[in-house]
Amino acid sequence: MRIGVDVWRGAGDTPAMYNAIVLDHFQNPRNAGTLDRATATISVENPVCGDLLELSVRMEAGRIAEARFRTRGCVTAMACSSLLTELLGGKTPAEARAITPEQMSEALGGLPPATFHAAQLARDAALALAEKLG
Predict the structure, then answer these.
(1) What is the dihedral of CA 65, 118, 53, 18, to 10 degrees?
(2) H-helix or E-strand containing 69?
């Protein structure tokens, strides 16, 4: 089955479940995969829904030079993971710690309450990474 925008549209007048920004990150994930020579790798899980996010970064001169993710979860968890790797680029661990779920939701066009947990999972990953990097 081809996954595309049409798959996620509701019937009739029902609005799409996912907006175009979320679908773009889901269908065209940025920085997906593993990272050779990672400085740090962390894994976080949402115990309620089971979404799992593994995040790896490579540091250069105290800043995140590269980030990669592997996620098992819903469409929004994939989209938030993809966005997180973009937000982390060039940041120090302290700056990574400052990323909020609200900031991620806004960057993805506003997540509804039912999917906001994915932004919180990405925030948990940013905090765990910052903690590991010191």
Answers:
(1) -90
(2) strand 63-72
Q: What would the 3-class secondary structure string for 70-104 be?
A: EEECCHHHHHHHHHHHHHHCCCCHHHHHCCCHHHH
Q: Which CATH number describes the domain made up of 16-133?
A: 3.90.1010.10
Q: Give dist(CA 13, CA 31) in Å, integer.
A: 35
Q: How many CA atoms lie within 13 A of 4 on its CB side?
A: 3
pTM for the full model? Answer: 0.86
14-42 pLDDT per residue, tens: 346 789 999 999 999 999 999 999 999 99
